[in-house]
What we know:
Blueprint: H1 2-10, E1 12-14, H2 23-51, H3 58-75, H4 78-87, E2 90-92, H5 94-127, H6 132-135, H7 138-164, E3 173-174, H8 181-185, H9 193-226, H10 231-259, H11 268-292, H12 295-312
Parallel strand pairs: 1-3
Antiparallel strand pairs: 1-2
Amino acid sequence: VEQTNATFWSGFIFLAFSSFGELQLLLFALFLSLYLITLTSNVFIIVVIRLDSCLHTPMYLFLSFLAFSETCYTLGIIPRMLSGLVRGGQGISFVGCAVQMFFSASWACSNCFLLAAMGFDRYVAICAPLHYASRMNLTLCAQLVGTSFLSGYLFGLGMTLVIFHLPFCSSHEIQHFFCDTPPVLSLACGDTALGELGILILSLLVLLVSFSLISVSYTYILATILRISSTKGQKKAFSTCASHLTVVTIHYGCASFMYLRPKASYSLERDQLIAVTYTVVTPLLNPIIYSLRNRAVQTALRNSFQGGLLGKG
Length: 313
């Protein structure tokens, strides 16, 4: 009991990248550069979509909220990770760890449901284009966005409660750079089978429900595209979904590998690498993918950039 109490009050210590020695400064420079690009790109997309009236459509509304969610997600993780790379092993209180887990899990789950909402938007746009404006009205879009964030917060709260209901009576050193569920769960002692099952069920619900909705949307989309007689028409219809499909593949690939597996299969070194992918790389790829593959976003960005230069001149 004394050991458990001591762990509760002292909190945890992050030891990610501690074995890299002098390379930590190189990692700091690399991750800082990627983070600044990510932050700038996502904020720029939000601002451009807000200012350009041509982008005031449901698809870009969802994209702006996805960029907002990714920004909040990285803000809760990467600055502390960068600080740890400079200062070495950095501590976090028990409550602070729970708060970080809640918000990181909430934003991550919200992203899953936002991607499902974006899939539904593409379904209506391709399968019922004549009814797109009436069906995808502002009220429905607000409901989809609100439901995505509310669902994310509820699932994030559930995961946090499941983890921090467990006793922590062993090492309080987290071989990771933030309070993610797998590394924190690995520190729990006693019989953690119920906690593992709870996390697995919640993760399955988030990933399977959202991915199932996306799969249903794209089943109808694919059927509609195949009925288009011209190859040019098929390519044009599919091109409107390419960016979304790419982001979905990356997002669900990392999330499934990380959270849909038993505790016994955790590998600290490998998991840190996967975590870097979905906390640093994926939020950077999202704006790049949508910017490079979307002519409307490219045009808006170009106009904003040229307008800024003309304004200065």
